[in-house]
Amino acid sequence: MRAVVVREFGCLENAVVASVPDPSPGPDEVLVENHATAVNFVDTLMVAGTYQSLPPLPFIPGKLPVGVVKDVGRAVADRKPGDRVMVLVEHGGFAGLVVAKPARCIPVPSQASFTDAASMSSVFDTAWFALHERARVQPADAVLVLGATGGVGLAALQLAKAHGAKALAGITNPDKADLATAAGADAIIDLGRPGLLDNLREQVHAVTDGHGADVVLDMLGGDIFDAGIRSLAWRGRLVVIGFAAGRIATLKTNYLLLKNIAVSGMQISNYRRWAPYETASCWSELFELYKSGRIKPSPTTAWPIERATQALVALRDRTARGRIVLTPN
Predict the structure, then answer these.
(1) pLDDT value at residue 218
(2) pTM above threshold 0.90
(3) Residues contacting residue 236 through CB under 8 Å, at least 6 positions apart
């Protein structure tokens, strides 16, 4: 089969397309023919060797491929050839075939194309757990999404609106404001203004009648985290999802004390690893929202697997608009 293989951590050009042997399922495993796998920012970190957990070399990048069950081991009873599934794997998705345990093969409804399901992967589940479990979002909450034009950010805007919350889109690139508006943002918050430490709070107060943000989802870190924590309302909740701005922020705990606020973290791969049944329940709800038209994938382009390196570079350099999905078959 054709696959993207990384034999040495470092530059993104180390991810090269090669022919590798087809995998075979064990007695309690499922073999899936892969039709679509999204490219995520985390894939660039894994190829570079800077992610917090790395597979042994050589490895095939790509999380949560979507396709059709091709074969099952003799001990598998709850999956069969022809089933449409999303595979909860942390790497191996940039390949024509993927092997996994049946519990990690999430049913994909017939209403969802392979491209749509792949486009939703790793972003809608991240946003769902961040909003519902970590931030305990409530209807009518003001939800500020920092980094709102990325994959997780656009998903979070949609899910906040689907839950009845007010969605505030914090963006660094005004040229992408239309993406946030299309995802349902009630207001655009400019993260590029000088003096952000004070003016972010002022911008949020201006669109919340002085209340502040009940929930902040932070994908960026650094100075933007510092400003975001100040924009929280009394009893607000901030969820750390990433550090795309570069600097890992530190926190003065007097902010927590004075405003009774909470800060937590959200790492979606931990849920897939340690809570696969909760993850399956999350996806069941997400696909119901998808079928009802209340959420939809971000604008998505499908590229052949041979363009994997270009896709990774576009994610790293933040030149991609919407999502990129690789189609190995």
Answers:
(1) 97
(2) yes
(3) 212, 213, 214, 215, 216, 259, 261, 262
